[in-house]
Design goal:
Rossmann fold, two-stranded antiparallel sheet, 6-stranded parallel sheet, about 15% strand, about 230 residues
């Protein structure tokens, strides 16, 4: 059983590897929610409740540092952009998958690439992430009918968590929220170079390539101050 800590009202598990998280979550029929410093800082009561009822894991260096500050020394960062592919590598021949998210061209490119890399994948359904209110009932019916074992939703937070919570009511499976992972996998968006990832500076690469994130990043200084001064 992995250890966890409550940080600013959010329960975050400290896993030592992606495989430990996969082994822990596979049979639990819950949502896997990626947690970073921004989510710890900004999460509203609704999102906190969703995370605490499911499995929050450290997707960013800020969350890893927070867990270390709380006494879990051997925790590892588990990027959601890598985790979903590990699920596929583990289970593409034994479990069924459903994909939701991104623009139509991106989801199509994602599915095409997946079929090339994993020709025996049991893919039971997919669609883009632009879901209108009138589309939701049909999506829920489709998920309920096909009963996928693992569902990936790449729509951004908290929209993806809300949708996954609704789907969990009609289909007991494992759900992963993936943000912009399909954009990266399909080649539409580039991930940070390996050097940035290795030195835990992926956040900085995103900042310099997306300057509009600067306002969001400034909030993380307050997050760090609160952690250092034990306000969380």
């Amino acid at each position: 059983m992995p250890d966890f800590r409550i940080i600013n009202g959010i329960r975050i598990y400290g896993f030592q590897s992606k495989q430990e998280l996969i082994d822990f979550s596979t049979h639990q029929n819950r949502l896997l929610v990626a947690v970073n410093a921004e989510k710890i800082y900004n999460a509203d009561p609704e999102l906190k409740e969703v995370i605490n009822q499911n499995i929050g894991y450290p997707d960013g260096v800020g969350a890893v540092w927070a867990l270390q500050q709380k006494g879990i020394s051997n925790v590892k960062k588990i990027p959601g952009v890598e985790l979903w592919l590990e699920f596929i590598k583990n289970f593409h021949t034994t479990k069924s998958f459903y994909f939701i998210g991104a623009r139509e061209d991106i989801i199509q490119a994602t599915i095409k690439k997946l079929k090339e890399e994993f020709p025996d994948i049991n893919l039971v359904g997919y669609r883009n992430g632009y879901i209108q209110p009138e589309d939701k009932a049909g999506l829920l019916r489709d998920v309920a009918e096909k009963q996928p074992d693992i569902v990936f939703v790449a729509m951004g937070s908290p929209a993806q968590e809300r949708l996954m919570t609704e789907m969990l009511e009609v289909n007991k499976g494992v759900y992963l929220g993936l943000g912009g992972s399909f954009d990266i996998y399909s080649g539409k968006t580039k991930r940070a170079p390996k050097a940035f990832i290795d030195f835990k500076l992926e956040w900085f690469y995103r900042l310099i390539t997306e300057p509009k994130r600067a306002y969001r990043q400034v909030k993380l200084l307050d997050f760090a101050w609160k952690m250092i001064n034990k306000k969380y």
